[in-house]
Amino acid sequence: MRIIIDGDACPQSVMKICERNAKKYGIDLKIVVDTDHFITSDYEVIVVENGNDAVDYKIVQIFQNKDILVTQDYGLASLVLPKAKGVVHTSGFEINAFNIEILLQSRYISQRIRKTGAKTKGPSKRTKEQDKEFEKILVRIILS
Length: 144
Prior knowledge:
The structure is a single chain. 43% of the residues lie in helices and 19% in strands. The protein has five helices and six strands; from the N terminus they run E-H-E-E-H-E-H-E-E-H-H.
């Protein structure tokens, strides 16, 4: 079991929570980013060329059975979900077989709205409650 972080657009507080719990539970952790991001960590940072979905492709390539994925990307989550121990959205909820279809549908609808030139609601300011909920879910998955 490893924690794999989709480092593109991952909040710093989430990375710190992942690093702290990887250390606490003796779990390997990998952060995957493209060349547009500069991240330092005590854990492995895998840097891929900047390109459409390059980080996602790398994560799918290195992802193993029972790994834990941390991401905001529902498409990526759907690709690794069958072999993941768990997938945690950076906002503090678990992505699983019960909610992935509705999450993908909402992503599709938002994309269609943006293609018409309309705006969709962007992310709200991160809260301490989201960090607490994220950590609670991450630890539950680690210990399950």
